[in-house]
């Protein structure tokens, strides 16, 4: 009896134990860490820790940590590729993986760490997209949201909890960013099962915040060519084929595309020229005692500490103040504003200050 | 405490200080699996509409903290003109007025102050803000009712 109880208790504890897992929130458009029960419960619906939306999808840790690990059918969408081949594996809500792959146009080189294990299947299902580079890239980006290649379903072991789903082939003609209500109307022709599935499926938002290179839907409007894309996203100039970009690089692109830009809020960056001209000084013992610590890293100043002095006389470690001024033009301690390179902002500031004085 | 390795010194220092010398009425404890995630409890300030309430919040330090502000959210339901249904907080220092000289402690103090001074003129929760402006007495009653339902221990 007692042993039974103990076992029950242990089970209960295991059920209650919570762990952090990375999720991609489709509302916030970036990755969040959410506390979920360690033991998977089919009824548990994870919610975004930032916006509360339940339209979140677990980011497979196996993908983050190891290239070699084979695909786990329970972890959600996976991206693979090498030599321009990209394969996406996604889960249907019945837990069956949907696999599709496509080929990037142009000489993309090794885009992602290769996964040779599946390369045969990749070749079987692969769809060759056009050689026109810009179309290739827009298709590449779109493909994260609208699978366009051939899809094959294959048998998978245990059913996984419901996850956001990729669109099925019937939908792939419709444009990205379309309202779910339209999908609803189209859905009437399908079987009841399909209908139910559609009702549960939610809108996958267009990638509007991603940057100027991306367009929702109409791929013929794609501005810029592949090298612009590489420059803007990867900071790569010259021939992109000269660069080997591993899986980490690919993860970085995704992260960068998906992270909300924290510079979006607040003041513009300080003028580069002004920042370069800020005096770098060594503190005397007296000054070090007066300023006591760097208000950014909270480390105490010592005699002879090398610091940057702002016009408001506040001093900071170089490593602390430069990254901040690259983001915003304010003094961390008193919000004194340095000039910016943003002429619109300067104009606004000037008119505001003259109107308050007038 | 393997999770502490790779954590910036500033975060370690802040955490130590928060645990050793907590702010009155506020507790912030890092999660054992993730040193950037804090479980926060704020007591409703005395002689405020939230007096007697115990509010749970979560606080997350993003990778670029302190260059970017912490992300904070109420987990306990609260009727407040500047806090929405999802617990998101309308507070300038969490957005455009963030400064890297601010820290977890100052952020939580500001949130505590927001409980003492609801500002219906800068609303995030329109229902609460409207009621606050139209009938403050009833708004405060509603806030108390929420505490009775959700924030009592």
From TrEMBL, chain A:
Q: Which Gene Ontology BP annotations are present?
A: protein ubiquitination
Q: Which InterPro entries match?
A: Znf_RING (IPR001841), Znf_RING/FYVE/PHD (IPR013083), Znf_RING_CS (IPR017907)
Q: What EC number(s) are associated with this protein in UniProt?
A: 2.3.2.27
Q: What SMART domains does the annotation carry?
A: RING
Q: What keywords are assigned to this protein?
A: Metal-binding, Transferase, Ubl conjugation pathway, Zinc, Zinc-finger
Q: Which GO terms describe its molecular function?
A: ubiquitin protein ligase activity; zinc ion binding
**Ranges for the RING-type domain?**
294-335
Q: Which GO terms describe its cellular component?
A: cytoplasm
Catalytic activity, per the record?
Answer: S-ubiquitinyl-[E2 ubiquitin-conjugating enzyme]-L-cysteine + [acceptor protein]-L-lysine = [E2 ubiquitin-conjugating enzyme]-L-cysteine + N(6)-ubiquitinyl-[acceptor protein]-L-lysine
Q: Which domain of life is it from?
A: Eukaryota
Q: In its UniProt entry, what is this protein called?
A: RING-type E3 ubiquitin transferase
TrEMBL record, chain B:
Q: Report the superkingdom from the record.
A: Eukaryota
Q: Which keywords does this Swiss-Prot/TrEMBL entry list?
A: ATP-binding, Ligase, Nucleotide-binding, Transferase, Ubl conjugation pathway
Q: Which InterPro entries match?
A: Ub_conjugating_enzyme, UBC, UBQ-conjugating_AS, UBQ-conjugating_enzyme/RWD
- Where in this chain does the entry annotate a coiled-coil region? none
The family database entries (SMART domains) matched by this protein are listed as: UBCc
The reply on keyword Zinc-finger is no
The Enzyme Commission number assigned here is 2.3.2.23
Q: Which SUPFAM superfamilies match?
A: UBC-like
Q: Where is the active site?
A: 90
**Listed Pfam families:** UQ_con
Q: Which residues form the UBC core domain?
A: 6-152
Write out the GO MF terms.
Answer: ATP binding; ligase activity; ubiquitin conjugating enzyme activity
Q: Which family does it belong to?
A: Belongs to the ubiquitin-conjugating enzyme family.
The protein's name: E2 ubiquitin-conjugating enzyme
The species this protein belongs to is: Galdieria sulphuraria (Red alga)
């Amino acid at each position: 009896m007692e042993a039974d109880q103990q076992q029950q208790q242990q089970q209960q504890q295991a059920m209650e134990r919570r762990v952090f897992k990375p999720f991609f929130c489709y509302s916030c458009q970036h990755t969040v860490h959410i506390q979920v029960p360690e033991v998977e419960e089919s009824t548990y619906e994870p919610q975004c820790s930032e916006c509360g939306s339940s339209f979140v999808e677990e980011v497979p840790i196996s993908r983050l940590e190891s290239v070699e690990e084979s695909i786990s059918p329970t972890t959600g969408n996976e991206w693979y590729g090498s030599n321009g081949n990209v394969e996406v594996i996604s889960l249907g809500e019945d837990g069956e993986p949907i696999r599709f792959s496509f080929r990037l146009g142009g000489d993309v080189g090794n885009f992602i760490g290769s996964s040779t294990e599946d390369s045969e299947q990749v070749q079987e299902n692969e769809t060759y997209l056009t050689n026109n580079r810009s179309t290739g890239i827009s298709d590449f980006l779109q493909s994260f949201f609208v699978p366009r290649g051939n899809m094959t379903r294959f048998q998978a072991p245990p059913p996984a909890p419901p996850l956001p789903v990729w669109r099925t082939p019937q939908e792939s003609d419709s444009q990205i960013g379309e309202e779910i209500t339209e999908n609803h109307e189209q859905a009437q022709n399908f079987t009841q099962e399909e209908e139910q599935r559609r009702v549960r499926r939610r809108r996958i938002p267009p990638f509007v915040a991603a940057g100027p290179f991306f367009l929702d839907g109409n791929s013929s409007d794609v501005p810029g060519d592949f090298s612009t894309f590489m420059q803007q996203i990867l900071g790569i100039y010259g021939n992109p084929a000269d660069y080997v970009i591993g899986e980490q690089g690919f993860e970085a692109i995704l992260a960068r595309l998906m992270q909300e830009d924290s510079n979006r809020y607040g003041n513009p960056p300080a003028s580069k020229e002004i920042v370069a001209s800020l005096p770098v000084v060594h503190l005397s013992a007296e000054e070090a005692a007066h300023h006591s610590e760097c208000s950014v890293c909270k480390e105490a100043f010592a005699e002879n500490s090398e610091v940057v002095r702002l016009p408001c006389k506040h001093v900071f470690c170089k490593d602390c103040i430069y990254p901040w001024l690259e983001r915003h033009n304010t003094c961390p301690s008193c919000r004194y504003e340095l000039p910016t390179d943003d002429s619109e902002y300067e104009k606004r500031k000037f008119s505001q200050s003259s109107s308050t004085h007038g | 405490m393997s999770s502490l390795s790779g954590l910036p010194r500033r975060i370690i220092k802040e955490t130590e200080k928060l645990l050793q010398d907590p702010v009155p009425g506020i507790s912030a404890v890092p999660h054992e699996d993730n040193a950037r995630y804090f479980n926060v409890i704020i007591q409703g300030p005395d002689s405020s509409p939230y007096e007697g309430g115990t509010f749970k919040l979560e606080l997350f330090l993003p990778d670029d903290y302190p260059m970017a502000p912490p992300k904070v959210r109420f987990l306990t339901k609260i009727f407040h003109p500047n806090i929405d249904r999802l617990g998101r907080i309308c507070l300038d220092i969490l957005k455009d007025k963030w400064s890297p000289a601010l820290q977890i402690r100052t952020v939580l103090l500001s949130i505590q102050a927001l409980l003492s001074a609801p500002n219906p003129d800068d609303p995030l929760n329109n229902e609460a803000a409207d009621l606050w402006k139209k009938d403050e007495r009833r708004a405060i009653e509603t806030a108390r009712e929420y505490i009775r339902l959700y924030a009592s221990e």
